[in-house]
User: What shape does this take?
Amino acid sequence: MSGVTGNQDVDIDLAQLVRGVWARRLKVVAITLLGAGVAFAGAKMISPKYRSETRILIEPRAPAFATAQATDANAGQLLDELNISSQVQLLQSADLIKQVISSQKLYDLPEFDAAANSSALGDILIALHLKKSPLANPPEERVIDAFVERLQVYQVPGSRVIGITFTSKDPALAATIPNAMAAAYLAKQSGAKLDSNSEATRWLEPEIENLRTKVSDAEQKVAEYRAAHGLLPTNGGGNFQTQQLNDISAELTRVRGEKANAEARAQSVRNALSSGEASDTLQDIMSSQSIQRLKGTESGLQSQISDLQTSLLNNHPRLKSLRAQLADIKTQIRQETQKILASIENEAKVATLREQELEQQSNKVKANSAQAGEDEVGLNALEREAAAQRQLLETYLSRFREAASRADKNSSPADARIVSTAVQPVDPYFPKVVPIVVVAALATFIMTSIAIMLAELFSGRALRPTSSVEAEERIERETVEVVAVAAPPARVPASSMLGVQHEEQEEQQDEVAEELVPEEPEEENEFSIASVAHYLIGSRAPLAIAISPTGDNGSAATVALARTLASAGSRVVLVDMTGSGHPTELMAQGRSLPGVTDLLCGEAAFGDTIHGDHLSDAHFIPQGTSDMRRAMRGADRLSLLLDALSSAYDLVLVESGAADVAGVSKLTQSKTVEIILSMPEIVEEEFVAAMTSFEEAGYERVVLMSGDNTDGNAAVAQQAA
Assistant: This one.
């Protein structure tokens, strides 16, 4: 028997599922061993296949005499990612595969002929036209298809290495094929280089001969043009006219300098003669030997005259003779000076005539140089053509010599090398008997266990009632049946609770008392926590405000109500708005958690103020640690807080302590909110005052919750168990 009725919500009993598998453990073990045995036999029946691998590294390779610039240029293109992928495709090309097939004589092996390996199932599928007959393809194509199926070429991720893997029933063939593929690939790459070098040599030979003829003709034209236009080369690299003009210009500059120098010297001599100054300071005069002799004689005469004047009179004949000789010497000095001046003036005149002659020659040469410049334009064009042809010839000759040096196959290595050679495998890669048996046994065990669990579920033995349904049934047993359909049992007028001796009130109290009397013999409290919880569940009220006129004992009853609702499956949150913070102490075992006051003061986030009850599934928002007065300045945001909580929970329960009507009105403007008077021990004066004030304020849903907390604590204890 499953113990589950048809109208109940159920959960899956995992323990029962495990017990069902354990009860049939021998059958499970037997089926698992059978599956492992079948997998072992099947793995042994499969023909083993062997796999081996060769790896090739793509890198630029060139002979030692190759230029570094050419090597670097080829390396950049070769190591490109697309080039590596292209080499992978080249290794799978049909030409290379055919070459390997032919060299290894694979046409003679039955392994590569699909027609020779046909099976009965394959023949049936071919007969039913569900499979193409292998005989429809040529033998060569069948061998290529079988080869391609066993071949795998791939690029090792993150590297320039290419792997060549081949699978075969023959371990020796599995190692031979990858090595043959690598050797054929390297030979093909090296041959491609040789072919390119040979083609370059064949193309360069006639081009070089043609260029030699063109260079000779161009140089001949340059020489003929020079001779025809008189553009003879000079040591400086220019033509003769230009060189001649440069020489004349230099000579003209020199002559003009000599002329200016002579004129300056002559002018200085004139100035000395006209002013009567001594000519001893003039270089041209003092350099004359005649002047120097006359100056020496003059100096001797003056010395004699000075000596004789001390002993003779001025009119002495000796002194007169000496003075006459001195005057004659001075006259000779002046005459010699005039001669020197005339000589300098002649030098200036000669320089002037030379200057005129050079200017005439310069004008003639300039005309010739201008004509030579025009002729040189054509010469430069011919020389450029000859130089271009000569440079191209030298380039072709250099490439021809390089290509000719690479004509040998050893001088042109392939841009790849083998880094790992395939070796003959010892163990087959398929089938792996141990992994196949382990996987088959594990799969058989899992499938068998799933089948047993499904049988348990379909039979109903692994189903059990949900905890929320059991909780509701327990609450219903504790409450009066009439509460679910009639007016709330705890909601009675205040006058009936006060026991006023009016006749109408007595009749109303009798009617309510009769309705509250259960059919069962045992007596039940109609204002208990369980009754109020059942009422709130039935009313689907989003918000309930609990008032505790008697203090912390009423707040404790409100906590018990929240735990009872949570044990019944309702999502409930309790907001502690009391002054003592007693609900926080009961649900959190402490008062240091952030709560309402911290949220209103902006010192905590909304999500950080919601905490879980340590004894139930209920949530609560504690009083908080911030200043109460500063928090009440933002009391207008309490309604927004309660609206947000109402959208996330089935019921928001606000414990406001001994609050009055004015305090409740700040929390919500709605008069249809549930008001719960939490009074475990009813004090008549406090109850009458609270009930009267709320009825006068227009609150119609006022519910009394009295009695002890036994039922609420029992619900929490049941859930914890």
User: Anything to note?
Assistant: The chain is about 60% helix and 10% strand. Residues 536 and 651 are 8 Å apart (CA to CA). The longest strand covers residues 50-58.
